[in-house]
Design a protein that fits this description.
single chain; 65 residues; mainly alpha
C-alpha cells in the first residue's frame, strides 16, 4: 500500500490495518526463526508499512484535536 492510499483511510481502518500488519510481521518473524521464511526482505517491508500507517494515523489524530 502506498502512502497516498493509506492517507485516504479513516482512523478506525488505519488502526485495523496496523493490527493486521503487526500480526503478519509476527508470523514472518516466527517463520524466519524456524528457517521457513524465504523472502527475508519481507521483514523490512512490513516494518516500513507499519511506520507509514502509524504516521498517517498520528497525523489524522492530531488533525482531529
Amino acid at each position: 500500500m502506498e502512502a497516498a492510499e493509506i492517507r485516504k483511510l479513516a482512523v478506525g481502518e488505519l488502526e485495523q490495518k496496523v493490527r493486521e500488519i503487526r500480526d503478519e510481521l509476527f508470523n514472518a518473524r516466527v517463520k524466519h526463526a524456524t528457517g521457513q521464511l524465504e523472502d527475508t526482505a519481507k521483514l523490512s517491508r512490513l516494518r516500513k508499512q507499519i511506520a507509514r500507517v502509524e504516521t498517517a494515523l498520528q497525523e489524522k489524530q492530531e488533525a482531529n484535536k
